[in-house]
């Protein structure tokens, strides 16, 4: 409809402009230039009116449903069962109660036990077969204006070529995992892979308009990661806005969430005098290469290049990573979950 209006205005304006110009030049060539200027001004006015019928920034579009899929592989032992159970519960609460996600599905690798939360007890089993079924079902109900977040937690192993998520039954590696989501469409897509060697998921998952976050570099970072637990803590108990607004642009965005988690982890390793064994990456420009965008917000002691006690306001490269994640505003509810 809007395209028809624009085309009609363009044709009408061109006809009137050319007609006035020819009419005037016959009687007074000196007026031709002034008439042309008036015609162009009239063109801009009509075009502006035509474009004004477009909803600004999609504000009148249906907001869509906020959906999430949380996947946790096998824990391996009782201690990790509790750790992962608590983390998945916090992730679920953070998304559903803090960020207003209406549809949050959980797949958990272990069989539930009596001490687990209701969220874990009611979760599906995170087998490869159930994961495939869940993604198929998700694709059937996902609408173009929906939001989709996928968060993966658990152990993995790297064979020199593939990073395998450890599941009950057959495992799944990064290219196979990415293919499950290749045909899904949603206005906002965020993938957060928090396992060891998760950097290898960035390239196959990367797509235009999609945000892909990994807990590690594309390297032999095979140690157990702390990223998912810190992410769950921040989502379920977000800091005050002044502290959370890392880039000081007046809004809380996915970029702020990512950098907050990365910075907290860097500080934790520093305080414990441990060598950091995980270096998170973010890719949102679709080139398949993750970037440590947090480096401008970490002090030199934390492994970055920001000045102590001063948040970086370095402008974002127009073609670099960070632009899409900065555009995803997060409206946290401050009510107790």
Helix and strand topology:
Layout lengths: L1 H26 L4 H21 L13 E7 L5 H21 L4 E6 L9 H4 L2 E2 L2 H14 L5 E7 L2 E3 L4 E3 L6 E2 H7 L7 E6 L8 H4 L4 E5 L12 H10 L4 H4 L9 H18 L9 E3 L39 H5 L10
Parallel strand pairs: 1-2, 1-4, 2-3, 4-8, 8-9
Antiparallel strand pairs: 5-6, 6-7, 9-10
Strand order of the largest sheet: 3-2-1-4-8-9-10
Question: What kind of sheet is the major sheet?
Answer: 7 strands, mixed
How many domain regions? 2
Task: Compute the number of strand runs.
Answer: 10
What is the N-to-C succession of helices and strands?
A: HHEHEHEHEEEEHEHEHHHEH
Low-confidence stretches: 1-60
Question: What is the CATH architecture assignment of the largest domain?
Answer: 3-Layer(aba) Sandwich
Explain what you see.
The chain is 40% helix and 13% strand. It is globular, with a radius of gyration of 25 Å. The strands form two sheets. A seven-stranded mixed β-sheet has the order 3-2-1-4-8-9-10. It is built from eleven helices and ten strands. It has 337 residues and is an alpha/beta fold. It has two domains: 2-54; 66-327, 3-Layer(aba) Sandwich (Rossmann fold). Residues 1-60 have low confidence and may be disordered.
Attribute tags:
337 residues, Rossmann fold, 7-stranded mixed sheet, 13% strand, globular, disordered N terminus
Quick description:
This protein is of the alpha/beta class and 337 residues long.
């Amino acid at each position: 409809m809007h395209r028809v209006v624009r085309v009609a205005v363009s044709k009408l304006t061109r006809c009137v402009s050319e007609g006035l110009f020819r009419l005037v030049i016959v009687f007074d060539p000196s007026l031709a230039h002034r008439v042309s200027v008036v015609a162009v001004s009239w063109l801009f006015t009509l075009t502006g009116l035509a474009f004004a019928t477009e909803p600004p920034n999609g504000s009148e579009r249906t907001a869509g449903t906020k959906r999430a899929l949380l996947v946790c592989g096998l824990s391996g032992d009782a201690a990790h069962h509790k750790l992962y159970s608590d983390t998945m519960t916090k992730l679920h609460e953070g998304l559903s109660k803090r960020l207003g996600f209406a549809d949050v599905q959980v797949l958990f690798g272990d069989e539930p036990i009596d001490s687990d939360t209701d969220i874990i007890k009611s979760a599906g089993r995170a087998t490869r077969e159930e994961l495939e079924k869940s993604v198929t079902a998700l694709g059937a109900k996902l609408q173009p204006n929906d939001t989709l977040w996928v968060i993966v937690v658990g152990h993995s192993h790297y064979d020199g070529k593939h990073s395998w998520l450890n599941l009950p039954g057959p495992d799944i590696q990064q290219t196979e995992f990415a293919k499950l989501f290749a045909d899904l469409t949603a206005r906002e897509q965020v993938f957060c892979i928090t396992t060891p060697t998760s950097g290898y998921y960035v390239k196959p998952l990367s797509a235009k308009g999609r945000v892909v976050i990994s807990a590690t570099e594309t390297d032999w970072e095979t140690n157990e990661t702390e990223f998912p637990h810190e992410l769950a803590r921040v989502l379920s108990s977000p800091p005050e806005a002044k502290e959370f607004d890392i880039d000081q642009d007046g809004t809380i965005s996915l970029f702020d969430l990512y950098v907050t988690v990365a910075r907290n982890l860097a500080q934790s390793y520093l305080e414990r005098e441990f060598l950091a064994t995980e270096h998170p990456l973010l890719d949102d420009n679709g080139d398949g290469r993750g970037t440590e965008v947090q480096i401008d917000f970490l002090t030199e002691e934390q492994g970055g290049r920001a000045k102590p006690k001063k948040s970086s306001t370095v402008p974002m490269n127009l073609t670099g990573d960070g632009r899409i994640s900065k555009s995803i505003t997060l409206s946290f509810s401050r009510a107790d979950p």
